[in-house]
Recover the amino acids of this structure.
């Protein structure tokens, strides 16, 4: 038998596998077909022969790949069926075929280090050795900074240049700007994704999640284009994510370590929205509440990126930040916070006034609670109204029995509270039943 075995042609020409070198034994399973194929190509490219078997006699895709790639395939029901293990089957075949030894790689992942394996085989009297594997190299996780922008030509260049110091990629999603936002962002070194028309802050976020998912980013940092967020806080937020293993980390403006000087009216409005948001997701324990539910400065893990990219329920408008939190809690994601300082001296990019923005957020919270928690929103107040109605009925009847006079005001109040309470309770029960049916 020749010491050279011709292999199938490749882009590099005809490869030859030498029988003077030890063979490499692989074990096929139902789930390692791609790994088997890749490893056979590596082994053959280094002039070694791959021998493949399986633990059970079945039509495995990995064995099919092995035949296509001209590996030696030993079916469990063949001439060596009496052997107890795949390792022994591979050993006997390699010995009978005249190979000087067998490097057993089994069904392990990773790549065999052939020079190290040959050296180990040379220094032992055994015919078979376990494969020495290539060292696993740790690669640094990739960080993408996503910036939604609409008519931010005045500030986007500075924000991009600052963010590039802490990111592998800076992505600006231009939401139909009519100024030079695209040109300035590209000149500053950003990758720009353009919307044909303005679809809103939430729509820009949806594009950021989609692009980050396509790019397999390990971390996605979202910050505003108007310069309010400080990109130098990015490493601290990412470190918080690494420590906590949270899917989402929020830059918290209310943390003691933050130095944000916030106008009193804005602080009061955010306090109200934060309280309602926490209540709407069922967080009653003050120690577990999120302090800054509306911060746009956030870090997302790869898991959160993928699920948010696939979620079509995230709204297009400014209430998208709240919808993302609802998505996170519905998926049992962990959320953490890290201190950040916001500069309110810059001109705000939010086109909505603070009152209109606040009313939008409150309306979104109420709609969400009505849809997801109708018992809490309708039944609890409804039962309370019924109880109040019963109290008024008691006072009305007690006064009539004692004095003979009928208090019309108390009677009307009792009827009003009782009817409203009953209607509210039944509405809550019906909505709750519909939600259960929808799930």
């Amino acid at each position: 038998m020749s010491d050279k075995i011709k292999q199938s042609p490749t882009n590099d020409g005809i490869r030859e596998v030498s029988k003077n070198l030890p063979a490499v034994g692989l074990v096929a399973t139902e789930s390692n077909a791609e790994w088997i194929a890749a490893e056979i190509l590596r082994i053959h490219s280094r002039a070694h022969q791959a021998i493949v078997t399986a633990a059970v006699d079945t039509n495995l895709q990995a064995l099919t790949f092995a035949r296509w790639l001209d590996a030696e395939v030993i079916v469990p029901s063949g001439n060596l069926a009496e052997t107890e293990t795949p390792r022994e089957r591979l050993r006997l075949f390699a010995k009978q075929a005249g190979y000087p030894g067998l490097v057993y790689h089994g069904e392990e992942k990773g790549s065999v280090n052939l020079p190290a394996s040959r050296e180990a085989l040379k220094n032992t009297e055994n015919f078979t050795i376990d494969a020495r594997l290539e060292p696993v190299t740790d690669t640094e996780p990739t960080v993408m900074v996503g910036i939604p922008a609409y008519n931010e030509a005045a500030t986007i260049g500075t924000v991009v240049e600052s963010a590039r110091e802490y990111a592998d990629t800076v992505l600006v999603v231009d939401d139909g700007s009519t100024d030079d936002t695209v040109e300035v962002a590209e000149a500053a070194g950003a990758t720009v994704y353009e919307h044909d028309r303005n679809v809103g802050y939430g729509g820009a976020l949806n594009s950021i999640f989609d692009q980050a998912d396509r790019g397999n980013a390990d971390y996605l940092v979202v910050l505003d284009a108007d310069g309010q967020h400080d990109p130098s806080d990015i490493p601290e937020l990412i470190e918080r994510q690494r420590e906590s293993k949270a899917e989402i980390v929020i830059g918290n403006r209310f943390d003691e370590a933050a130095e944000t000087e916030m106008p009193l009216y804005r602080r009061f409005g955010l306090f109200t929205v934060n309280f309602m948001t926490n209540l709407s997701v069922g967080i009653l324990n003050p120690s577990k509440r999120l302090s800054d539910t509306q911060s746009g400065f956030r870090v997302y893990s790869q898991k959160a990126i993928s699920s948010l990219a696939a979620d079509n329920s995230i709204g297009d408008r400014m209430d998208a930040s709240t919808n993302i939190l609802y998505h996170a809690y519905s998926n049992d994601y962990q959320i953490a916070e890290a201190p950040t300082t916001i500069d309110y001296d810059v001109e705000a990019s939010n086109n909505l006034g603070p009152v209109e923005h606040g009313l939008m957020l409150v309306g979104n919270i109420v709609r969400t609670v009505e849809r997801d928690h109708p018992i809490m929103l309708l039944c609890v107040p409804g039962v309370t109204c019924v109880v109040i109605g019963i109290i008024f009925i008691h006072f009305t009847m007690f006064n009539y029995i004692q004095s003979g006079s009928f208090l019309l005001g108390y009677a009307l109040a009792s009827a009003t509270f009782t009817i409203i309470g009953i209607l509210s309770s039944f509405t809550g029960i019906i909505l709750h039943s519909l939600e259960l049916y929808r799930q």
Notes: Confidence is low (pLDDT under 50) at residues 1-15, 352-366. Residues 374-438 form one domain. The CA atoms of residues 266 and 354 lie 7 Å apart.
